[in-house]
Automatic annotation (TrEMBL):
The keyword Signal applies. This is Ion channel protein Tsx. Pfam families: Channel_Tsx (PF03502). Keywords: Signal. Belongs to the nucleoside-specific channel-forming outer membrane porin (Tsx) (TC 1.B.10) family. InterPro entries: Channel_Tsx-like (IPR018013), Channel_Tsx-like_sf (IPR036777). Residues 1-21 form the signal peptide. GO terms for cellular component: cell outer membrane.
Amino acid sequence: MNTRKSLLALSLLAASTLAHADYTFSNVSFNQLNWSDSTLEKTQAAPFGAKRNFQYLEAEGGMGRSWGDLYGFFDLENWNRNDKEMPAGDRRYTTKVVARFNITDVGGVPVKLYTHVYDTRGYNFFDQNRVLGLGTDLSFGKVWFKPFLGMHQELKWQTGAHRNGWMAGYVAGFDFTAFGQPFAVTQWHETEFDRSDYFTTVAQPGGTVQKRTGQNGAVSLWWNPTKSFTAGLQYRYAVNKLGIAGNENAMIYTVKYNF
């Protein structure tokens, strides 16, 4: 799975409310990802990029200090199977680290150095995305918004490391109460644009096409009945991303223990 993680948005929610305070958090979660029938049918008919439903275990954490904030997760995908002969049936390992360093304020708006590394690998495959740019924190009442824009470099199996255009994205969300219970809605989104010729090829049934722009993200609803427990429902989407042309979508069901 690319990366991608929708729990990034939830974890940074704490940072938004504690923008100038020290904080730490950590959790572990169980996740079931089910692709839509149309996504399964389309991707399994393509020459590469096949998708299958899978489970993954995740460890996630972050911290904020006066210098900025740090976030990361590690996913063990297909933890309960490892079928190397089945496309998308192999065990995979995915890691993401995001670090944002405070630089200055402009008119009361913080300017941050933004960096992230996303790495996913499995049987006879690896892909690593590196981004270096600028980001900020914005809030509008109960809504928080953390955009970034950066240069994108990619290291991929059988392709090597090359500049791969630009990446823009954000995490956003807000807390609310319904039926006497605490909830949160969050979104993370990434757009790749001006892709290098090394990385424009995506698959479709019967062949491949070239796409210089791709979209990747998730919209999530979180229920937080206790300090230790969170349950989530996530709508995962991608367009011209994850190796496939056109739309892909899935639902992710998450239960999480917060330390």
